[in-house]
Write a structure and sequence with these properties.
By secondary structure, the chain is of the alpha/beta class. The strands form four sheets. A five-stranded mixed sheet has the order 1-3-2-4-5. Strands 6-8-7-9-10 form a five-stranded mixed sheet. A five-stranded mixed sheet has the order 11-13-12-14-15, sandwiched between helices. Strand 4 and strand 5 form a beta hairpin. The longest helix has 33 residues.
């Protein structure tokens, strides 16, 4: 039986059909993106004002308790940074390999705290160079070398890391020249200083706010080595040792006491604390950590980093105006005694404009009423308010329940909006569960601050994105004022922070958007991560599909 002459043509058409269909499908896949690109009106990446290049969602992540504004001055302007080494990913490893000791600052040019640190950091570097210390100070622009910063766990700016033989630990002391130099000197020094005369003892007692002294048999050997090891575990307190009974007596140690004996002295009401544990480095360091701070620390701009970065993360804070403080501080101090080494007790002068106001705003405290709250620290950032009278028993019970995780956290929230019909939905603390954590919706959430310049720049772009995505039932575009609202599932790294919560996956951490803040890039991000596929509800979409279908059909008939 002869094959029809038309078979080869039909065979070729059959082979080509999948390719034609794939081409049509590819065209359909790109249709929405093409529309977004054509209608986004995004400012091009080479915009002379460069707003697209201002950084990722964490641009303002170091906006802290005491400031909310960035200045436009250049990082390091008019500062002599001759002795500060500029590092990049290309020379970072070789720099560390060539030096046993180094401090590295990870900074961002826009960061106000980094600019404030710059003159002190440069001065510390110059001092170390002149004194020929075996240590170098360097800096890394974390916005240029983001992968390097991520490798070392940098989450805020500035972050200072001190390296010894390539092994690093974070510096969390005060950001001043003197504090940095004292800290480094302690790391490079012998760890323990000898006190052999009464004059030397008097200099220590009058010159040190806090000091540790060990009364031992020999200034070298096992006990001295153990004390030196303990000293290196403690950043802020100097350690001394003596074998002289008369010196020991000046430090309130019985000259006939069994050796080794250790005491901690402070210039405050609780002047002397005697150590009665095992003479082991880790145990001594733990004792010093638990007892070195006063029972009550008054918060200042200078000691805020040490308080909020303390190894003791949990805090009890008393807010009171200066004229009322004397009524409550004695009770607060008495309540603190059983919790030494377990909780930090902090007094905040409520009517102090430099400290009290911004800290109260941070914790959502309004008015001048005396308030006690518990705070879990910056990482967890949960807070709990004391209810009832400000009595000794009530505060102690509150602190104990806080230690045992028996309290219910408080989260700030604006009132739930009466209507929420705009393209960008308003989310507050009280309705986040209903709007954002709805498992049937893919949700994009911007967390912003009203004072944030980057947030104001983003607003028209974000509104335009929401307008393009209007009418898609499975998708929600939302925003939340992060200064007035809190939720454990929406913790911003800074402002603005943009999170995406995929439908059906609300039990997982949200996905952070870190691309350029343009309509096109945010649309592509949503399209990539959305659990529920969607099509734009474009005004001309039906007509476009009809025209495309007619054109495709006509072309196909012509080919056939």
């Amino acid at each position: 039986m002869a094959l029809p002459r038309s078979l080869p043509l039909i065979f070729l058409l059959l082979l080509a059909t999948p390719l034609l269909l794939a081409s049509v499908a590819a065209s359909a896949r790109d249709e929405d993106l093409d529309y977004i690109i054509d209608n986004a009106d995004d400012i091009p990446a080479n915009d002379p004002e460069g707003w697209l290049q201002e950084g990722s969602s964490s641009d303002d992540e170091d906006e802290g308790l005491f400031d909310q504004d960035h200045e436009d001055e250049d990082y390091g302007a008019e500062i002599d940074e001759t002795h500060v080494v500029l590092l990049t990913a290309a020379n970072f490893s070789s720099f560390l390999a060539a030096r046993r000791h180094a401090m590295v600052e990870f900074y961002a040019p826009w960061c106000g705290h980094c600019r404030a640190l710059a003159p002190d950091y440069a001065a510390a570097a110059a001092h170390l160079a002149v004194q020929q210390y075996d240590v170098a100070l360097a800096k890394v622009d974390a916005t240029e070398d983001a992968e390097l910063a991520e490798r070392y766990g940098v989450q805020g700016f500035p972050t200072l890391l001190f390296f010894i033989d390539g092994v690093h630990r974070e510096y969390s002391g005060e950001r001043t020249k003197d504090a940095i130099l004292a800290w480094i000197s302690k790391k490079l020094g012998p760890g323990v200083q000898n006190v052999t005369t009464a004059d030397e003892a008097e200099r220590v007692l009058t010159g040190e706010e806090t000091a540790v002294l060990a009364f031992i048999h020999s200034l070298s050997g096992a006990h001295s080595d153990e004390l030196a090891a303990a000293s290196r575990l403690e950043d802020t307190v100097n350690f001394y040792q003596t074998t002289t009974p008369d010196v020991a007596k000046l430090f309130h140690i019985d000259p006939e006491a069994e050796r080794p004996s250790v005491v901690l002295l402070k210039k405050e009401e609780e002047k002397l604390t005697v150590y009665d544990g095992e003479f082991r480095a880790s145990a001594i360091a733990k004792f010093v950590l638990a007892n070195k701070l006063p029972l009550i620390t008054t918060l200042t701009q200078e000691n805020a980093p040490a308080i909020f970065d303390s190894p003791i993360k949990k805090q009890i804070l008393l807010f009171a105006v200066a004229s009322e403080a004397s009524k409550f501080l004695p009770t607060f101090k008495e309540a603190a005694k059983p919790f030494k080494g377990k909780l930090l007790f902090v007094f905040v002068e409520r009517d102090n404009e430099e400290v009290g106001e911004p800290v109260a705003n941070y914790f959502g405290i309004t008015g001048q009423e005396t308030t006690v709250l518990a705070y879990t620290g910056n990482e967890d950032a949960k807070k709990f308010f004391l209810s009832g009278e400000m009595s000794l028993d009530n505060i102690k019970e509150f602190a104990q329940d806080f230690l045992e995780d028996k309290l219910t956290p408080f989260y700030k929230s604006d009132p739930v909006p009466e209507s929420n019909d705009e393209d960008v939905k308003i989310v507050v603390g009280k309705n986040l569960d209903q709007v954002v954590l709805d498992e049937s919706k893919d949700v994009l959430l911007e967390i912003y601050a009203p004072w944030c310049g980057h947030c104001r720049t983003l607003e028209p772009t974000y509104n335009k994105l929401a307008k393009h995505l209007h009418g898609i039932d499975s998708l929600v575009i939302a925003k939340m004022d992060g200064t007035n609202n809190e939720h454990p599932r929406a913790k911003p790294d800074g402002f603005p922070t943009i999170f995406f919560y995929p439908a059906g996956k609300k039990g997982f951490e949200p996905i952070t958007f870190e691309g350029d803040r343009t309509v096109v890039e945010m649309y592509k991000f949503i399209k990539k991560h959305a659990s529920i596929p969607f099509k734009l509800k474009r005004p001309d979409s039906s007509a476009a599909r009809t025209q495309s279908s007619d054109s495709s059909g006509s072309n196909l008939k012509d080919e056939l």
